[in-house]
């Protein structure tokens, strides 16, 4: 069962996940906490009250031009330096989350390049999640926070996608197909962007086509 608790709500960032056709159910628990899950009413406990249902969707990746892929590199570099996070990792997360579309909005409400939920934006004091500078700075600070909480990249990425609580509950990547695929995708993109950014630094040019 895929569940996102109240803190997980701050962390869920889903628009860049692989093909996904699950409905997302929002419940309120007896203690007032909020639960997001892909399980319908008859699969959760009676202590949960159904609040809303968002229909699932299929995400189909599109091709990227070099200009689209690299247009935020200066912003990424500044945020990475400011928060001591690897630039290639930040770029990989943006690629996986929004495909570099600063106006992206997921069906569960995640916004902008790094797909911040509104609650996350408020927590990070991101006033305009569709502003590239603000969104990337906020998302990078979020990654820095998670790097301080977990000692390996798998857990950091899983927490970014599925919530810190779920990672601690399962002592690693949760058994959610979308989270497992997300971690693999971002790690693959990170390696490719490490090569791209290193080549640019060494040669002053980018000749790689990353899609």
TrEMBL record:
Coiled coil: none
CDD domains: LT-like
Protein name in UniProt: Lytic transglycosylase domain-containing protein
Species assigned in the record: Alloalcanivorax xenomutans
The organism's place on the tree of life at top rank: Bacteria
InterPro entries: Lysozyme-like_dom_sf (IPR023346), Transglycosylase_SLT_dom_1 (IPR008258)
Ranges where the Transglycosylase SLT domain occurs: 75-174
SUPFAM superfamilies assigned to the protein according to its UniProt record, in alphabetical order: Lysozyme-like
Family from the record: Belongs to the transglycosylase Slt family.
């Amino acid at each position: 069962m895929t569940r996102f608790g109240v803190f997980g709500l701050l962390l869920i960032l889903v628009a860049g996940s692989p093909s996904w056709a699950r409905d997302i159910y929002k419940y309120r628990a007896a203690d007032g906490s909020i639960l997001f899950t892909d399980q319908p009413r008859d699969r959760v406990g009676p202590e949960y009250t159904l609040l809303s249902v968002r229909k699932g969707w299929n995400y189909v990746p599109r091709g990227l031009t070099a200009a689209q892929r690299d247009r935020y590199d200066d912003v990424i570099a500044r945020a990475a330096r400011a928060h001591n996070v690897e630039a290639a990792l930040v770029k990989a997360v943006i690629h996986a989350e929004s495909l570099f579309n600063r106006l992206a909005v997921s069906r569960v409400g995640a916004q902008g390049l790094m797909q911040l939920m509104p609650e996350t934006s408020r927590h990070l004091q991101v006033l305009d999640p569709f502003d590239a500078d603000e969104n990337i700075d906020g998302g990078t600070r979020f990654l820095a926070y998670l790097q301080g909480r977990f000692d390996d990249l798998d857990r950091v990425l899983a927490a970014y996608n599925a919530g810190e609580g779920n990672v601690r509950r399962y002592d690693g990547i949760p058994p959610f197909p979308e989270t497992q695929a997300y971690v693999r995708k971002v790690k693959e993109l990170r390696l490719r962007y490490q090569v791209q950014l290193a080549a640019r630094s060494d040669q002053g040019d980018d000749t790689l086509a990353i899609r």
